[in-house]
Write a structure and sequence with these properties.
Blueprint: E1 14-19, H1 23-34, E2 39-45, H2 49-59, E3 63-65, H3 68-72, E4 79-82, H4 89-98, E5 102-105, H5 113-126, E6 130-132, H6 140-150, E7 157-167, H7 182-197, E8 204-212, E9 227-234, E10 239-248, E11 253-260, E12 264-267, E13 277-279, E14 282-284, H8 291-294, H9 296-315, H10 330-349, E15 353-354
Parallel strand pairs: 1-2, 1-4, 2-3, 4-5, 5-6, 7-10
Antiparallel strand pairs: 7-11, 8-9, 8-15, 9-10, 11-12, 13-14
The structure holds nicotinamide-adenine-dinucleotide.
Nicotinamide-adenine-dinucleotide binds near residues 21 and 88.
Length: about 375
């Protein structure tokens, strides 16, 4: 027997530093350390050192620090994945970009549009790749629906819907410590992006929100929100509904739909697997319980796409082409954040609110090639 020769000229992997090694960061770390082609996890930064050190030990990551600035200063780090608390996202993104690192940032890109402008300026100046964690786009059923939409299956979009129901027990642990606008800035922001992506070329114009504490009514007077419905009007006339609950007893439920002049596409997997159980009481199936179950592949695929983009940018190679617009960037982060901010305003006033600042005037990165509309 003789082995075949192998070409040793493999491209250099993208060396990634993780910032924030909590629930989501640890999942990303495990993906980067094991299943993302073309990437290696080179370092972890988290002010909570003890869990970061044990994660690094588990994954064989050689460097751990309490200070993200150490990653920015390290010339061996090509890119960072930011999964810290959202109030730090903009400053971390901007500092990483200024240090020449490609950036994958968990959602939202910032908590205000002003903060996001600072990120936009730093990224433009540095010429790095910046991507946001709108993982839903990478889920097989959402991507298939988006491809069918691009092929004309829907015609002109008229009605859209998107929903998120987080798994729960009927009460929300540590609800009093959940920041007030989490519903819009961290949860429905996924739905806003999904709706925008499934309504190509249109801009969100206005929103009107109903929101309440139906799961934790004792926290209503403190302004806590666990249940919300937003209606959205788009520039192409389409109307959309986004809704979310923080407590679905049957598990994690995410769905999306675009209906139009020629038909409809739907995405959203109600069961954990294709298995069904038939018995005397009827038909049953297991439902997904966690985001990292429902979106396990999507979370990995978004990081694989990030690594491919970062490598292409680093090596001067063409960016990956997915056939349909897929990789979510700063324009998508801005559009979804502008909707979240408008929803917050609508809750505060009880009235419809205009979506302001969803597009940077003259930014040139228009939605699916549509003309940029400054609002
Ligand atoms: N895409 C998704 O489906 C999804 C799901 C869950 C969370 N997230 C996002 O991931 C991010 C983190 O959420 P989480 O649930 O993992 O939170 P978490 O609280 O579990 O983890 C946050 C981590 O950040 C660390 N941290 C605190 N301050 C920091 C700083 N200044 N710099 C770096 N790290 C710091 C904390 O010590 C902690 O380990 C948020 O943006 C959240 O919206 C996304």
């Amino acid at each position: 027997m003789s082995y075949l020769p192998v070409d040793p000229a493999r491209p250099e992997p993208v060396r990634v530093g993780l910032i924030g090694a909590g629930w989501m960061g640890a999942f990303h770390a495990r993906s980067l350390a094991s299943t993302i082609p073309g990437a290696v996890l080179a370092a972890i930064a988290d002010p909570a050192l003890e869990p970061a050190v044990s994660l690094a030990a588990e994954l064989g990551v050689p460097q751990v620090t309490a200070d993200p600035a150490d990653l920015f200063a390290d010339p061996a780090i090509d890119a960072v994945v930011i999964a810290g608390p959202i109030r730090f996202h903009a400053a971390l993104s901007a500092a990483a970009a200024r240090a020449g690192k490609h950036v994958f940032c968990e959602k939202p890109g910032a908590t205000t549009l002003e903060e996001l402008s600072e990120v936009e300026a730093a990224v433009a100046e540095a010429g790095v790749h910046w991507q946001i964690g709108f993982n839903r786009r990478y889920a097989a059923d959402f991507l298939a629906a988006r491809r069918d939409l691009a092929a004309g299956a829907v015609g002109t979009p008229q009605l859209l819907r998107s929903l998120t129901r987080d798994p729960g027990t009927g009460s929300i642990p540590h609800a009093a410590r959940v920041p007030q606008w989490t519903m819009f800035l961290e949860t429905l922001i996924h739905d806003f992006d999904a709706l925008n992506w499934m309504n190509p070329g249109a801009e969100p114009v206005s929103v009107h929100v109903l929101a309440d504490a139906l799961v934790e009514p004792d926290l209503r007077d403190a302004g806590f929100i666990d249940t919300a419905v937003a209606t959205i009007r788009y520039s192409n006339g389409a109307m959309a509904v986004a809704e979310a609950s923080f407590s679905a007893l049957y598990g994690y439920d995410v769905r999306g739909e675009t209906f139009g002049s020629r038909g409809m596409v739907q995405a959203g997997r109600p069961t954990e697997t294709a298995a069904r159980t038939y018995g005397p009481e009827g038909l049953s199936a297991r439902t997904p319980r966690l985001n990292i179950e429902l979106f396990a592949d999507a979370y990995r695929d978004e990081l694989a796409d990030f690594a491919a983009h970062a490598a292409a940018r680093r090596d001067g190679a063409p960016a990956p082409d997915h056939g349909v617009p897929l990789t979510p960037g700063l324009a998508d982060a801005r559009r979804a954040l502008a909707m979240a901010r408008a929803c917050i305003e609508s809750v505060q006033t009880g009235l419809p609110a205009s979506v302001a600042g969803s597009v940077v005037s003259g930014a040139g990165e228009a939605h699916d090639g549509a003309a940029a509309v400054a609002r």
